[in-house]
Amino acid sequence: MLRALLQPVIGLVPAALLFAALHLVPDRRLWVWPAIALVLGLMLGVVFSRFGYPAAAAAHVAINLLALMRLRRGEAVAVE
């Protein structure tokens, strides 16, 4: 929802950068999360621009569900 409000005002790249910043975590072992969030933020921003908010929200839910299913099965890569 935040991106749907911000992207038309500030643009795709700034909204994606903010999306990535919101995924910063203090654990240095998880530094890759903001980078992944930036790439996905750009991709979801393009989906939002081309197909609208419902499509971008559905894509975001699908990505989160896939990630949760991987975590639940224990397939997540351990970061050490």
Can you walk through the features of this model?
This protein has 80 residues and is mostly helical. It is 75% helix and 0% strand. The protein is built from four helices and no strands. Helix 2 packs antiparallel against helix 3. The protein is flat and about 35 Å long. The N and C termini lie far apart (33 Å).
Q: Can you give the helix content as a percent range?
A: over 70%
> How far do the termini sit from each other?
33 Å
What's the Cα radius of gyration? 14 Å
Which shape, going by the Cα principal axes? flat
**Number of beta strands:** 0
Annotate the secondary structure layout.
Elements: H1 2-10, H2 12-21, H3 32-51, H4 53-73
